[in-house]
Specification:
- The protein is built from no helices and 11 strands.
- With 115 residues, it is an all-beta fold.
- Strands 2, 4, 5, 6, 9, 10 and 11 form a 7-stranded mixed sheet that branches.
Length: 115
């Protein structure tokens, strides 16, 4: 199994920035890729950013140029740097790990962007 713990959410004004962290533990060697998802009230959960084991990244069109996913392998931590935040970025952000055993989720962290 893989355990994921997110942190770094909060309340920020439009145009501001936040950095989310996701610490992974457990069978980390089984992870193929990691993703950040978000879910806004009344909406479906959507993928925001992906990072593969090889370091390739991909982003949702809505966050390209504003969000950056990175990792610190020594600390088993995935980051999401969010700049130029907009009110529509308000959501619960979840860390996800894809493995050959299945996929795992963190508990989520709330991001609220005020206008």
């Amino acid at each position: 199994q893989v355990q994921l713990v997110e942190s770094g959410g909060g309340l920020v004004q439009a145009g501001g920035a936040l950095r989310l962290s996701c610490v992974a533990s457990g069978r980390i060697s089984s992870i193929d890729s990691m993703r950040w998802y978000r879910q806004a009230p009344g909406k479906q959960r959507e993928v925001v950013a992906i990072m593969t084991n090889g370091g390739s990244t991909n982003y949702a069109d809505s966050v390209k140029g504003r969000f950056t996913v990175s990792r610190d392998n020594a600390k088993n931590t995935l980051f999401l740097q969010m700049n130029s935040l907009k009110p529509e970025d308000t959501a619960v952000y979840y860390c996800n790990a894809q493995t050959f055993l299945g996929h795992y989720w963190g508990q989520g962290t709330q991001v609220t962007v005020s206008s």
